[in-house]
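Researcher: Quick test of sequence recovery. Tokens follow.
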């Protein structure tokens, strides 16, 4: 939402210079609410509440930023004592209780061993000794994700700010029960971002591909799904990342597979959480390259109800990715900015490949001439000219969906991007 007034912009600068100044930050938040920038306001008030958890003005502002109608208490059915005006913060807290964690939907992770023999006879106890590998926080943070400011802002406002603040957790536990679905072309950072979110939360990370949960033996997929969630619960706080969510898609013909429906249902059960608090500290993120194959039941409110489009890296992101992949290689005279300019359209994975290819050229050359030389701009630019963007085919399908199947505005972000790129 770039249409900020000069006043908002200078307040932002002032707040950046005085991050502890609560009244100043609230003033900024007030203007953001007035301008309809609710997500941004929520993020600001969340920070203010960290400094001053009990501040009544901050609480009231948060209520408005979160869309509580000024006259109605958030939980009217349980708040007979609600004052006639203003958000009844106390009632809302009472209602949500102490331990309603925000939860994110999603899928189980791949088993360690590919198709263990006991799975094949359908009777084996795959054991609950964690068959799914959980990674401890490894220090990857959103700051390590190059560029993509949009995606980071949305993650911060919709997801991280509320989670970082215990007061907000209680409220959001109620109102933001659902999880987050990342979608976009392959190789553009969905997995990387999910890992960075775990890093931001200081949480463990359990990444599984739905394909690894699916089992040709009836019943095993459901059990696998349950085990994945149980593993995440044992390891809480844990980000549970369900990759290739579309593998469960009821829209695909191959999902005529008889057990598929049950597996989807099992996932819904796990997401919805039977016992209150079962998913405390379990944050579900899911990803897919083909969101149009994802079962709609999974996208209903309270499930994977928010989506974030993860696009091919913008120029700053490409610079960061290139710097990363060249960090330990013998390079000389590399103009990263220029290189980033020359690689528009390439995915993160394409860029990794590009650096490989350039290194190979320099190496072959050194071997041929008998003189070792560094990897130079020319190696990289020549390699770039030979690598077609791997997301082109994805955009061809996405274009059709954007044109003909944008039900309920689900793909508005995609439409905006395609128009900007003149691909629509
Ligand atoms: N914005 C980014 N900043 C740094 N590295 C990135 C970025 N986007 C992608 N990458 C790198 O590109 C590669 C592919 O990303 P990945 O997360 O596996 O893509 P996806 O899950 O969308 O298929 C990874 O090596 C990742 O580290
Ligand atoms: Mg991935």
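Model:
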């Amino acid at each position: 939402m770039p249409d900020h007034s000069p006043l908002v912009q200078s307040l932002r600068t002032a707040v950046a210079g005085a991050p502890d100044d609560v009244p100043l930050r609230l003033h900024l938040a007030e203007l953001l609410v007035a301008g309809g920038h609710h997500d941004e306001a929520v993020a600001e008030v969340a920070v203010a509440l960290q400094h001053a958890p009990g501040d009544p003005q901050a609480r009231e502002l948060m209520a408005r930023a979160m869309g509580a109608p000024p006259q109605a208490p958030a939980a009217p059915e349980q708040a007979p004592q609600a004052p006639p005006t203003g958000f009844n913060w106390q009632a809302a807290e009472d209602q949500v209780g102490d331990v309603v964690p925000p939860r994110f939907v999603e899928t189980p992770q791949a088993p360690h061993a590919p198709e263990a023999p006991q799975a094949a006879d359908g009777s084996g106890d795959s054991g609950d000794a964690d068959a799914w590998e959980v990674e401890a926080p490894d220090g990857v943070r959103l700051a390590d994700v190059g560029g993509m400011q949009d995606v980071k802002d949305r993650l911060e406002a919709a997801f991280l700010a509320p989670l970082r603040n215990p007061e907000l957790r209680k409220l959001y536990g109620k109102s933001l029960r659902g999880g987050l679905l990342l979608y976009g072309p392959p190789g553009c950072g969905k997995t990387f971002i999910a890992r960075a979110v775990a890093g931001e939360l200081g949480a463990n990370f359990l990444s599984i591909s739905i394909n690894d949960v699916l089992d040709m033996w009836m019943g095993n997929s459901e059990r696998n799904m349950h085990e994945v969630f149980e593993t995440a619960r044992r390891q809480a706080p844990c980000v549970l990342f369900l990759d290739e969510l579309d593998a469960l898609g009821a829209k695909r013909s191959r999902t005529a597979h008889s057990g598929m429906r049950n597996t989807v249902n099992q996932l819904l059960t796990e997401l919805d959480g039977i016992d209150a608090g079962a998913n405390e500290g379990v944050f579900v993120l899911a990803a897919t390259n083909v969101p149009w194959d994802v079962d709609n039941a999974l996208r209903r409110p309270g499930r994977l109800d928010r989506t974030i489009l993860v696009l091919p890296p913008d120029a700053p992101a490409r610079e960061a990715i290139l710097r990363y992949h060249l960090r330990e290689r013998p390079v000389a005279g590399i103009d990263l900015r220029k290189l980033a300019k020359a690689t528009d359209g390439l995915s993160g994975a394409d860029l990794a490949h590009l650096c490989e290819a350039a290194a190979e050229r320099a190496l072959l050359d050194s071997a041929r001439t008998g003189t070792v030389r560094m990897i130079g701009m020319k190696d990289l630019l020549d390699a770039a000219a030979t690598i077609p963007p791997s997301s082109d085919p994805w955009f061809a399908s996405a274009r059709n969906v954007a044109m003909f199947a944008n039900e309920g505005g689900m793909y508005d972000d995609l439409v905006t991007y395609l128009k900007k790129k003149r691909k629509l």
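Residues 145-148, 186-192, 310, 313, 317, 320-321, 324, 348-349, 352 surround adenosine-5'-diphosphate (ligand 1) (CB under 6 Å).
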